[in-house]
Amino acid sequence: MGSTHRPRALACALLGAAALALTAGCSAGAKTATGAGDRAGTPATLDELAARTGCDLAGKRKAAELQQGNCTNSRGRYVLVSFTTDQGRDAWLTEAKPWGGQYLVGPRWIAVGTHRTLESLRTDLGGSIVAGDQHGGSHTGHGAPSRS
After folding, report:
1. CA 112/CA 103 separation, integer angstroms
2. What burial letters (b/e) apply to 37-57, b meaning 16+ CB within 10 Å?
3. Of 33, 11, 12, 25, which is closest to residue 100 (Cα–Cα)?
4. Contact between 119 and 106 (Cβ < 8 Å)
5. Starting from the edge strand earliest in sequence, which strands make up the sheet with 32-33, in order?
6. Which of 57, 61, 62, 109 gives the lowest tally of CB atoms within 10 Å of its CB?
7. Running DSSP on this structure, what letter comes out for residue 85?
8. CA 31/CA 7 separation, integer angstroms
9. Does 119 score more than 50 pLDDT?
């Protein structure tokens, strides 16, 4: 393990977003959805992301390397997370993807929500939709393995 210190706030932010990802569903495969009109997005603070999506932030949390806030509006429920670096964003996403869910990813920010909500947010924020790991649905083995 590296010498990087991860504050408790980072762990709380990850767990909060992972919980939302789980409630958003675990049926999507790990792929990126992009379209011809997809744009990269621009770096933004948490408050700028909220303003662009018409959200009043609730449960706002701040750590040295990220800020997180919860949103509920006509588009749905989603979590906005802004990062101080793209490397921090990538590390966060690597830790979150095993929990499943959907992520709208832009430069130094991520939005977490349902695919439909993220498609709507993408018109204002840009970015690419990334699916977390797939869970459930096709378990093949039941019981103890047989021995030959």
Report:
1. 5
2. eeeebebbebeebbebbebeb
3. 25
4. no
5. 32-33, 128-131, 102-106, 109-113, 76-83, 66-73, 58-62
6. 62
7. S
8. 30
9. yes
Q: Which two tokens stand for residue 23?
A: 């409630």
59-101: pLDDT as tens digits: 999 999 999 999 999 999 999 999 999 999 999 999 999 999 9
Q: Mention every residue, 6+ apart, whose C-beta is less than 8 A from residue 83.
A: 65, 66, 89, 92, 108, 109, 110
Q: 137: exposed, middle or buried (C-beta count within 10 Å: 0-12, 13-18, 19+)?
A: exposed
Q: pLDDT at position 136, please?
A: 63
List Cα–Cα distances, 90 to 47, 59, 105, 106, in angstroms.
Answer: 21, 23, 9, 10
Tokens at 59, concatenated: 């449960």
Identify the pLDDT of residue 134: 81
CA distance 49 to 66: 13
